[in-house]
């Protein structure tokens, strides 16, 4: 499919998140403050969960000595912060539309399978269409995760260039996140300024500022807690550089950002430049890597089957699924092999798909052809790749995938169409997804089987 269409999809997805955040902030604040109160009154007596983690306050600093408790020191040399201590398995997670569902509701829909991670979006500095960072709201997200014994993925955007974030803002955010860690025993994956290698965020295409900002965020977190992991989350770079309709332009020639992004030094920023490394803030401040990766439909493809190697090909920058999207040469693969660079190679970081899914497009049903599949098939074929024992053996550092549970009108081809990523909104797709969870028992891990430590450990305590 054309790069233009793909960019439109990425761009729409960004606004979809931002618009949702606005809606939630406007309708939700009063309600949420009530919910937060209500929650605190119930917090001491949660019911119906098999997790050992529920709403157990954590003491990081020993009140007697005022020093960090020894048990809260991150000393593991094998596993990163919040890297589950298993291999060959992964944790399914969910990004929720929190305006109508919570982790507790989701757990019920999944027949008591408890996703280990739930995601939400927030803006440290509000952008045009998004709400600002709000401690009560953040606290509510954290406590809702605590009710099911799950972890929180916090995708924290900034609706401005990163030089406008002050040290006080980093400190305030780190303090709030630490309260979630200690108040509810809920670990947090902080995906700070994700998709910084795209043109649809205010902080995009600015590697110098991004790397400095990410480092400040990491330092503010590290000074307070080991139960929060820093997640570096670029967009998948197969069609990089992205352009058209975004918030920012490519840097001007000769600037430090341009020089950093022109990795092959040919005087242009092209598909043969590394879409990731200019933005990598450093092994010492990155705990996890996470790449935004979805199954995206081709323009001329009407809900067609998911190409069987899609996940693997997009992670490694080679293979049949990239045909028709880009020209793959050894030079191309060398800079697009994300897994090799960050997970198999020296950094050896655990990897997540921090948001993922396969959209079904209702408007394209009428044009179905021999390649077309049903909604359940389209969504399960994607998830099959994420839970497959073969892929987990091939990519042992891949340990978490977060389902993007939303639906929205988008117009990538100029005509409005309903892009529906949800797997739990209709009985039919939900039963297919629950069946997939059932038959994948040997490769997936739920929150109920995990135990979290204040040192940032995530241990599997049940088979
Ligand atoms: C986190 O772990 C490091 C390394 O062991 C330790 O020095 C630090 O005190 C811990 N920080 C907190 C807040 O627990
Ligand atoms: C389906 O999604 C709509 C919002 O689009 C929501 O109001 C409804 O509760 C959802 N139903 C289920 C079963 O999730």
From TrEMBL:
Residue ranges annotated for the GH26 domain, each copy included: 73-433
Q: Could you tell me the superkingdom of the organism this chain comes from? A: Eukaryota
The UniProt GO MF terms for this protein read: mannan endo-1,4-beta-mannosidase activity
Q: Where are the transmembrane segments?
A: 12-34
Listed GO biological process terms? substituted mannan metabolic process
Q: Which UniProt keywords apply?
A: Glycosidase, Hydrolase, Membrane, Transmembrane, Transmembrane helix
User: To which protein family does this belong?
Assistant: Belongs to the glycosyl hydrolase 26 family.
Q: Which named protein is this?
A: Mannan endo-1,4-beta-mannosidase
What organism, scientifically named, is this protein from? Chytriomyces confervae
């Amino acid at each position: 499919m054309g790069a233009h269409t793909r960019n439109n999809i990425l761009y729409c997805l960004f606004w979809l998140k931002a618009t949702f955040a606005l809606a939630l902030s406007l309708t939700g604040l009063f309600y949420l403050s009530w919910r937060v109160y209500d929650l605190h009154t119930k917090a001491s007596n949660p019911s119906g969960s098999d997790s050992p983690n529920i709403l157990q306050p954590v003491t990081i600093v020993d009140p007697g000595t005022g020093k960090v408790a020894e048990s809260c020191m991150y000393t593991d040399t094998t596993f990163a912060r919040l890297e589950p201590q298993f291999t060959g398995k992964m944790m399914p997670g969910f990004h929720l539309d929190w305006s109508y569902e919570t982790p507790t509701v989701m757990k019920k829909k999944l027949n008591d399978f408890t996703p280990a991670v739930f995601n939400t979006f927030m803006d440290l500095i509000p952008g045009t269409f998004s709400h600002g960072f709000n401690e009560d709201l953040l606290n509510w997200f954290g406590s809702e995760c605590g009710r099911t014994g799950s972890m929180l993925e916090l995708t924290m955007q900034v609706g401005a260039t990163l030089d406008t974030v002050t040290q006080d803002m980093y400190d305030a955010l780190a303090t709030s996140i630490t309260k979630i860690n200690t108040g509810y025993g809920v670990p947090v994956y902080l995906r700070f300024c994700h998709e910084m290698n795209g043109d649809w965020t205010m902080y995009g295409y600015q590697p110098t500022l991004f790397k400095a900002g990410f480092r400040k965020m990491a330092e503010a977190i590290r000074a307070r807690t080991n139960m929060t992991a820093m997640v570096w989350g670029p967009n998948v770079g197969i069609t990089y550089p992205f352009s058209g309709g975004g918030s920012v332009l490519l840097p001007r020639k000769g600037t430090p950002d341009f020089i950093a992004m022109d990795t092959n030094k040919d005087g242009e920023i092209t598909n043969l430049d590394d879409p990731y490394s200019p933005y990598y803030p450093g092994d010492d401040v990155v705990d996890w890597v996470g790449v935004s990766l979805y199954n995206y439909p081709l323009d001329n493809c009407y809900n067609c089957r998911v190409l069987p190697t899609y996940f693997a090909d997009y992670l490694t920058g080679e293979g049949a699924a990239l045909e028709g999207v880009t020209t793959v040469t050894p030079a191309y693969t060398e800079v697009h092999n994300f897994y090799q660079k960050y997970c198999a190679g020296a950094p050896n970081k655990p990897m997540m798909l921090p948001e993922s899914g396969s959209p079904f497009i209702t408007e394209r049903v009428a044009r179905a052809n021999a390649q077309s599949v049903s909604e359940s098939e389209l969504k399960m074929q994607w998830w099959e790749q994420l839970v497959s024992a073969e892929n987990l053996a091939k990519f042992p550092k891949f340990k978490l995938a977060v389902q993007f549970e939303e639906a929205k009108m988008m117009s990538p081809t100029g005509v409005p169409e309903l892009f529906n990523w949800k797997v739990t909104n209709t009985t039919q797709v939900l039963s297919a997804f629950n069946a997939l969870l059932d038959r994948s028992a040997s490769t997936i891990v739920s929150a109920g089987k995990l135990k979290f430590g204040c040192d940032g450990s995530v241990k599997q305590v049940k088979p």
